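WARN  no MSA supplied for this record, continuing single-sequence
INFO  ligand: acetyl coenzyme *A
INFO  echoing inputs
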Amino acid sequence: MAEIAKLQIGDRAYEFPVTKGSENELAIDIKTLRGVSGGVITIDPGYKNTGACKSAITFLDGEKGVLRYRGYSIEDLAEKADFLEVSYLLIFGELPSQDQLSKFHSDIKDNAIVDDDVRKILDAFPKTAHPMGILSSLTSALTAFNPSSVNVDSDEEMYRAIVKIMGKLPVLVSWAMRKINGLPLNYGSNSLGYVENVMSMMFSKPNEEYTVNPIVRDALNKLLILHADHEQNCSTSTVRIVGSSHAGLFASLSAGISALWGPLHGGANQAVLEMLEAIKEDGGDTKKYMAKAKDKNDPFRLMGFGHRVYKNFDPRAKIIKVAANQVLNDLGIDDPILDVAKSLEQEALNDPYFVDRKLYPNVDFYSGIIYRAMGIPVEMFTVMFALGRLPGWIAQWKEMRLGKEPIGRPRQIYTGETLREFKNIAQR
Ligand code: ACO
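INFO  complex generated
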C-alpha cells in the first residue's frame, strides 16, 4: 500500500502521497499543498530537503559514499571506461555498442569546428580574463552561430544539438587555455580519440609534433569521468532551471558554467591549490590552518573539505587520491604540495571538529594536484571540471525537456514592509 504523510496546520489535517525512488529513497509529494491549504508553502533555503525533480541519471548515497551513473558504479566506470562511452551512457541511458560509439564520435568530429568569427570575440578579452568567464561567454556566443533553441520533439534536432556542443566545447576550452599561454589557436585533429584530441588542442606547440603521454591521458580520462555528473548540484540545477524556461541548450549550459565557477562549487579546485600553495609559502604549518578553519570568527574554510550531500568519503576523492600519487610517480614529479595535502587530510580525519560535522575530502581536494602535474594553469582547473561535466549537464537538460517539466519558479515568504503611503521627495 502506498505510504501517506500527514500534516497538521492548526486544526486542519492534510494528507500527501509518499513517493519512492528505485533505491528506496522517500519523498513527500507536496505538489497540492498550496492549493488545498489556501496558500501554505514549504520553505527550505539552499534546498537541503527539497527534491526538485525525479531523475534516472545519477544515484548517490551521501551517507554511504556511493555514486553511480545509470546504475554503473563510479569505481567501475573510472577504471574501465572511456570518457566518450560514459558521455553516451549519461546522455542516452545505455552503454554504447562499438558501432554506436563510432557513430557518436564521428558525428562529434563533424561538428568540431567553431565559427572562425568566435576568435574575434576571444581576441577582445584581456589576457587577464578568467577562463571560466571566457568559456561561459563563448558558450553563450555559440547561440549566435547556431540555432538558439532546439525542437525537443525531434530526435534528430536534439541529437544534432548534442553532438555540436560535444564537438565545440573542447575547442573553446583549449582556446581559453591557449590564450593564457599565448599560443596560436588551433583545431586539433580528427584522427585522435576525444580525450587525446582535447590534450592535443590544449598542449600542442606550433613548432613541434605533439605526442600524447598515455599516463596523462589516462589520468585526464579518469578526471573527466569522475566529474561527468553529480545529480542535482548547483550548476546542474541551474542548467535545468534555465532550460525549464525553454531557453536553448547552449544558453542553459552557459548559465551552468557560471554557476560552476563559484569557489563553493567547481571553483573549489582552484581555491584548494591556492590554499595549499599559501600554506606551503607560510612554512607548511598545517596545524595553524586547521585552527583557522575551526575558528568561527575566521572566514577561512578548509577548501576541498565538506560536501552538501556526502557525509562520508567522497568516492571520487578516493579514486583521485590514488590517481594523483600515480601520476606524480609516473611523471617523476616531487610536488611538496602533495605533502601539505596529505598532512591536512590526516589531521582533519582525526579532528573532532571535522569528524563531528562529517567533513571529508571532496573531489576537488586532489584534482588540482593532478592538473598541475599535467601542466594546466590553476585558473583552468574549473574549466576542466566544466569539460567533464558537459555530458551530465546535457543529459539533465534533455531529461528535463523530454519529461515536459514545468518552468522552475520557487515561491518565497515575504519579510519586507507592508503597504505604506508614498511621500513626495520634499517630505522625506
Ligand atoms: N572548513 C571548515 N568548516 C566547514 C567546512 C570547511 N571546508 N565545510 C563546512 N564546515 C562547517 C560549517 O562551518 C558548519 O559548521 P557549524 O555547524 O558549526 O555552523 C558545518 O560544517 C556545516 O557546513 P555548511 O556550510 O552548513 O554545509 P553546506 O552543506 O551548506 O556546505 C560546502 C557544503 C559548501 C561544500 C562546504 O562544506 C564548503 O564550503 N566547503 C569548502 C568548499 C569546497 O570544497 N567546495 C567544493 C564542494 S564539491 C563540488 O562542488 C564539486
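DSSP finds 18 helices and six strands in the chain.
INFO  checksum written, moving to next record
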